[in-house]
């Protein structure tokens, strides 16, 4: 993430996931995460 190698460190962040339903199945999914909070922990 952010061009950094994976080192196994945990990060905590908030986010929202939005689902759009059409009849029964999920049609679209949008995810919004706090990227600055993640970057600050890496």
Structure, described:
The structure is a single chain. This protein is an alpha+beta fold and 42 residues long. It has one domain. The chain is 17% helix and 36% strand. The protein contains one helix and two strands, in the order E-E-H. Strands 1-2 form a two-stranded antiparallel ribbon. The longest helix is centred in the C-terminal third of the chain and has 7 residues. The termini are close together.
Concise summary:
It is built from 1 helix and 2 strands; from the N terminus they run E-E-H. With 42 residues, it is of the alpha+beta class. Strands 1-2 form a two-stranded antiparallel sheet.
Question: Biggest sheet, open or closed, and with what strands and sense?
Answer: 2 strands, antiparallel
Our Rg estimate from Cα atoms comes to: 15 Å
Mean pLDDT: 89
Number of extended strands = 2
Helix content: 10-25%
Structural class comes to: alpha+beta
Q: N-to-C SSE series?
A: EEH
Strand order of the largest sheet: 1-2
Number of domains: 1
- Number of helices, where a helix is a run of at least 4 consecutive DSSP H or I residues: 1
- Any low-confidence stretches, pLDDT <50, length ≥5? none
Strand-residue proportion: 35-45%
Write the layout of secondary structure elements.
Elements: E1 15-21, E2 26-33, H1 35-41
Keywords:
42 residues, alpha+beta, 1 helix, elongated
